[in-house]
Design a protein that fits this description.
The chain is α+β, with helices and mostly antiparallel strands. It contains 10 helices and 10 strands. It is 32% helix and 23% strand. Strand 2, helix 2 and strand 3 form a beta-alpha-beta unit.
Length: 334
């Protein structure tokens, strides 16, 4: 089950600030164990929510997603933070809440926050450089799709549109809380389930949106995919804000990928007013992965048991040699 992102908020001791396990350290290079490869990722972005405790959790989850998408285990992280200009006590409290929220996620992942760098600026921003490791021969890549597999998505989409609507005061509170809860949910357990069921290709769905990241995978794998629009899980409220034409600021840039869709079925499916959600940028989005068709049902069952109730099979890898995505108007048959 998903926990509420505002639960278990800590209080900062007066004048304490936040101290990572190795306070002040700005570099770390832990060697991987024998038979493993090192993973290194970095993410940084502006706050999409005003609460630094909640945003810290989401920013940490977002940064860890790349590591999980490659089948790896995060080991350590460095933080980068910009805190809005304010009185010194306010700046300290905001920094503490931001890093405490992040450390809540990182420590649960076994990832040590070893230090970082902070500064003051116009708006709250945060990011993390994450180090991890993965066994040689078990690295998941975008280019691992093969014909006959199915595409699994572990989380619903629509967070970009919902948060854009929240900024315009056009979103219901339960929609926003639902989106924040999904963004604060770790993908660690999902990655473990996918690996157990023969996953060979994976990525995390983030800034390019579902379709943009799927196109990256088809190009890297040199395959075609049929994407079944009715099977794509949506966050509560996403359909409503999309129908109201509330779009993320990244929509126009992401929408260029619609040119990669092929076939008459894609034109039919795009008549649905929710098509904009295909390119809606996600923060701390789910994993998009390929698994063997005969593992699909068991994989979905295990994902839902692991706390991902909206996990779904959303497409089928159909052909090698031609890199295209066809949007189908009917649900996928599993």
């Amino acid at each position: 089950m998903r926990s509420h992102p505002t639960a278990a908020r800590p209080s900062a001791p007066a004048g304490s600030g936040f101290h990572a396990e190795h306070a002040g350290r700005r570099s770390t290079a832990p060697p991987p164990p024998p038979g493993h490869l090192s993973l290194h990722t970095v993410d940084f972005f502006r706050a999409l929510w005003h609460d630094p405790w909640v945003f810290g959790q989401i920013a940490a989850n977002h940064a860890l997603g790349d590591c999980y998408a490659m089948g790896g285990t995060p080991t350590s992280a460095l933080a980068i933070a910009v805190i809005p200009f304010a009185a010194e006590a306010k700046v300290e409290e905001d920094l503490f809440q931001l890093m405490a929220g992040a450390n809540n996620i990182l420590s649960a992942a076994g990832c040590v926050l070893v230090g970082g760098h902070s500064s003051e600026g116009a708006e709250l921003s945060a990011g993390f450089s994450v180090n991890g490791q993965v066994p040689e021969g078990r690295v998941l890549r975008k280019g691992g799709l093969t014909p006959g597999q199915v595409m699994v998505l572990t989380k619903p989409i629509g967070s970009g549109a919902i948060m854009a609507a929240a900024m315009r005061r056009k979103a219901k509170g339960r929609w926003v809380m639902g989106a924040l809860g999904v963004m604060a949910q770790s993908s660690a357990a999902a990655a473990a389930v996918l690996l157990r069921h023969g996953c060979s290709g994976c990525t995390d769905v983030t800034g390019f949106g579902l379709l943009g990241h799927l196109v990256e995978m088809t190009r890297a794998s040199k395959v075609s995919v049929e994407l079944h629009a009715p099977s794509i899980p949506l966050l509560d409220g996403a359909r409503e804000v999309a129908a109201a034409a509330v779009l993320s600021s990244l929509h126009d840039q992401n929408a260029r990928v619609f040119a990669q869709l092929s076939g008459a079925d894609s034109d039919k499916a795009l008549q649905d007013g929710t098509f904009s959600l295909l390119v809606d940028p996600q923060t701390a989005g789910g994993l998009l992965a390929s698994v063997p068709h005969d593992q699909a049902a068991a994989c979905l069952s295990d994902l839902r048991a692991a706390g991902y109730p909206d996990a779904a099979v959303i497409g089928v890898v159909v052909q090698a040699g031609l890199t295209a995505v066809t949007l189908r108007p009917e649900p996928v048959a599993v």
